[in-house]
Automatic annotation (TrEMBL):
Swiss-Prot/TrEMBL keywords: Signal, Transport
Leader peptide range in chain numbering: 1-24
Family per similarity comment: Belongs to the bacterial solute-binding protein 1 family.
The protein's name: Extracellular solute-binding protein
Superkingdom, taxonomy of origin: Bacteria
Species assigned in the record: Alloscardovia venturai
Pfam families xrefs: SBP_bac_8 (PF13416)
Amino acid sequence: MTKFGFGKAAVAATASLAMLVGLAACGSNGAGSSNTVQLTVWAASEDQAKNSSWLQTEEKAFEKAHPEYKITWKNSVVSSADAATTVKQDPSAAADVYQFANDQLGTLVSAQAIGELSDDAKAQVAKQNDQTLVDSVTASDGKEYGVPLNANTWFMYYNKSKFSDEDIKSLDTMLTKGKVSFNLMNGWYLPAFYAGAGMTIFGEKGNDAKAGVKGGDHAAEVTKYLVNLAKNPNFVKDNDEGAGLAALKNGTADVFFSGTWNAEDAKKALGDNYAAAQLPSFTTQSGTYQMKSFAGSTAVAYNPSSKSPKIAAQFAAFLGSTQSQKDHYTIRGVVPADKELKSLIADNPAAVAQMNTIANTSILQSTLPEMTNFWDPAKNFGTALMNGGITEANAQAKTEAWIAQANKASK
């Protein structure tokens, strides 16, 4: 869902990097014990384009870091969004190394089509990432699979001529000073209010299917808050057709919630007043709560069915390394997941906002298959909020019915 630009960069691979990404104790490699191998790698077409050949750049860097290997590369176009569908058809015939969207993790584990990280790779992941992204590659069995390459979440674009640095900490303050658009009818955005006030979705880490969806003690009062938000004259209705972005462009909105895929459009819309930030707080009758958006990652994995699992695992970790993510940003503009690269993106408001959101105002989007059944009940509830079907008077009953429906759908 993300769109990126491209640039130009060179790679410097170091011996310490080679040590960091090494895979320990794969056991006997069988056919994979030879250092002369062919590795099949799947990646998006944009990663392999002639004018932005990030993948080939990293393959050459890996060869330089590992002169003991003689590798023939076989690259094919399979996007991270399509990885699970393609891999699970026949794991033994799938790529040795591939990228996947982390919400596919449960499917890949069930298909035995994704390899567990070594201790060295887990140490790399822990060093590079905030806990949300570590959790994004942790399956329900508690084991880690995949190295985060880039993050996926949403945050706030705003007109900095209307709001001070202090103003943007509070949604309620912003609503007194400008027009705020938000997509309450989308199940990916709506839960931010409830998550901030105590809702849990498949447990605290999103990996416990039996825990289900729990609204918490303040869910009904959050609903009442949203009923009034929808009626606020400074609230601008957004929808999946892009009404919020259109409002930002024509000046009828000063705030727009989205992700890095809309950075260029938001920048054009706001011009010199372009700014972005992590999510604000909001205040209900019982207190102030922090909005929290869903977050996930695109990660790099290796196939345990590979004929060369040790080398495949090493290359997967290499593709997710700090240097490789730096190259990905400078070559293609892909915002890194690696928190150690914050200085690299310091002049990019959207990238900084995304990284701050991951660190401070996000929760993990569950990787469980049951999560697919959460979206429609949330969308229907948000639509009812916007259409006036939910009021302060029926907020308690409607909220309980929504949560019950989400749990029923997930069973």
